[in-house]
Amino acid sequence: MxxxxxxxxxxxxxxxxxxxxxxVSSTGHLVLVGHVLGATGGSSASFAIVIQLGxxxxxxxxxxxxxxxxxGGAIRRAPAxxxxxxxxxxxxxxxxxxxxxxxxxxxxxxxGVGPIVVALVVGGLVMIASSWLGRARxxxxxxxxxxxxxxxxxxxxxxxxxxxxxxxxxxxxxxLAGEAAGLSTTTAAEFSFLLSLPTxxxxxxxxxxxxxxxxxxxxxxGALAVGTVxxxxxxxxxxxxxxxxxxxxxxxPFGVYRVLLGVIVAAAVWR
Length: 271
Description:
By secondary structure, the protein is mostly helical. It has helices at 6-19, 26-37, 42-50, 52-62, 64-75, 79-109, 113-133, 150-161, 170-180, 185-210, 212-215, 218-249, 252-269. The chain has one domain. Helix 1 (6-19) packs antiparallel against helix 2 (26-37), helix 5 (64-75) crosses helix 6 (79-109) and helix 8 (150-161) packs antiparallel against helix 9. It is globular and about 50 Å long.
């Protein structure tokens, strides 16, 4: 494994924390930044996936009261907590099956700059169109996690499968799927954040086990710690800010950013 320096680990941790929960694609940004910094290849991809652990810890800290209440509720078999747990499991199942089936193809075919640029631009255009078309229905959408039924969770889970294409964004796919299922943008975002716990947790654990000897070697452990801790603090700040901003501006500014980034990267690479 090519060693990731502490400086590169710091930069990647900042990028991961900034982009993991915004609908702009953390994987796409990490791959693009990795190309700029010379941190590319399978080992660097594993490093980028494992430092997601910091962002996951940020979710746990931010939603600590909600999670504690529902964990306790599930133990007591409270209906609301069991419904939310069931919704998370149903939403996680599709991406677990598809991800395991296609993981080799995805790593071999879709981690290049070209596929990421396409995903950024197409996803950005979809977000802009969705924001424009959904204005009339915004007041009709349902507010609150209690409205995430199993059928809506399944729709969100199917939508999450599209995020396996680097550059699309897990947040974008799940929020748009939640909106299409009738949820408010804020509720869809909150469920998306909670859904990241099993989804990204499983991906992180898988990569950590698979590449444990390289990632946990003495030379790599320091960089891994720097990247993970940095992503935690940055992601924690981003979560709170995004949830405050989202009801006011919606998704379209992130769509515009994605399109502009895709065009700039395409112009730089293929000029």
